[in-house]
Amino acid sequence: MPEPKVLLIIPAYNEAKNLGGVIDEIKKEVPFCDILVVNDCSTDATTAVCAGRGVPYISTIFNLGIGGAVQTGYKYAAARGYDIAIQVDGDGQHPAGQIPQLIAPLLAGEADLVTGSRYLVPMGYKLQYPRFIGTKLFSLLTSAILGEKITDVTSGFRAANARTVSFLSVEYPEDFPDVETILLLGLSGYKLKEIPLHMRPRASGRSSINFQKSVVYCFKTLVSVLSVLLRKRFSGT
Amino acid sequence: MILKHQIVTIGTSALFLLLVLNLLRKNKMKEIYSILWFVVGLIFIVISLWEGLLTRLTELIGAKYPASVLFFFGLIFVLILLVHFSVEISTLRKHAKDLNQSLAILNNELAALKKNFGPKA
């Protein structure tokens, strides 16, 4: 089998401080992967960090938010005919060393989307309490709807095969996309798989989801779960 | 005989119609919206001129006050219109997002092409 073409999509909004380290680690750990940084109208030195390391980047015209930025990466991957596209956060929380484990089930044809889960095996990884509960609740809800066990529905560390990439390049939710994409793919008959993930705390700066946003997050995610259910269950598409 | 309050309502409706016509003339609105607002203006005038219409309608649906009938239908109309605009805005947002992404990807490809084949700066 020829070497698969793998693209790492790094959505970045003002991540200049962490991005360099992320890119360096990827280049060291998985040199066979191509990198694409989606710069979502950063006002800091994000593009300079990419240019300095010779990493291709795409700059959005106006700020799209995480969903739109990641989807730009999937569109790029679909247009360039990549076999696998992997989403990696630009904040350095996702260990690049685990990428081979993430893509193995895709290469073996066992799954269409592989997620790195923080809870599949107890790793002692602790989220702040409200977030932990939110993640647990939505994971349970998603598991119940899909009828299969999903332990970490909010993980942003995901690998998709070409079939999934072309699906996501067309249909990708905008604001809080993580739960909705898993549901969308699951209900559309895509095979999901989780592998245990060792996640690190953020290297620098604040996460995009802070305390105030959690409430909005829960509400919006509930609405999106409902909308996916209505779309997929009752429209026949 | 035209009553005092009719002068006010007819005057307001006429001003509203003029506003719509002016916007139509300046090509500021999609035709479909111009027609919609034009019809709304005409309905205003009809209701102002024909006093019996609103009273008849009030009796017909068993309401107490003609004014509440007017407000009821007005509110329903505005609600439907707002929902319609939400749909319209969502469509526009999606189109803007798709254009944004396409342009971003094309910019990236253009830069790569220029680097390989373009005139040397």
What does this structure look like?
The complex is a heterodimer of chains A (237) and B (121). Chain A is α/β, with parallel strands linked by helices and 237 residues long. Chain A has a single domain, classed as Spore Coat Polysaccharide Biosynthesis Protein SpsA, Chain A (Alpha-Beta Complex), CATH 3.90.550.10. Chain A has eight helices and seven strands. In chain A, strands 3-2-1-4-6-5-7 form a seven-stranded mixed beta sheet, with helices on both faces. In chain A, α5 packs parallel to α7 (177-187). The mean pLDDT of chain A is 86. Chain B folds into two domains: 1-49; 67-121. The termini of chain B are far apart. Chain B is built from four helices and no strands. Chain B has helices at 4-25, 31-49, 51-61, 66-117. In chain B, 86% of the residues lie in helices and 0% in strands. The longest helix of chain B has 52 residues, at 66-117. Chains A and B meet through β3 and α3 of A and α4 of B.
CATH superfamily of chain A: Spore Coat Polysaccharide Biosynthesis Protein SpsA, Chain A
Proportion of residues in extended strands of chain B: under 5%
Unreliable segments of chain A (pLDDT under 50, ≥5 consecutive)? none
Q: List the domain count of chain A as a whole number.
A: 1
SSE order of chain B, one letter for each helix or strand? HHHH
* Count of discrete alpha- or pi-helical segments spanning 4 or more residues of chain A: 8
Alpha carbon gap, first and last residue of chain A: 34 Å
Low-confidence stretches of chain B: none
How much helix is in the residues of chain A? Answer: 40-55%
Helix/strand-derived class of chain B? mainly alpha
Mean pLDDT of chain A comes to: 86
Oligomer: heterodimer
Q: How many beta-strand segments of chain A?
A: 7
Label the structural class of chain A: alpha/beta
Q: What characteristic shape of chain B results from the CA principal axes? A: elongated
Q: How many domain units of chain B? A: 2
Number of helices of chain B: 4
Could you estimate the helical fraction of the residues of chain B in percent? over 70%
State the strand order across the main sheet of chain A: 3-2-1-4-6-5-7
Q: Most extensive interface, residues per chain?
A: A-B, 16 and 12 residues
Q: What does the radius of gyration of chain A come to?
A: 17 Å
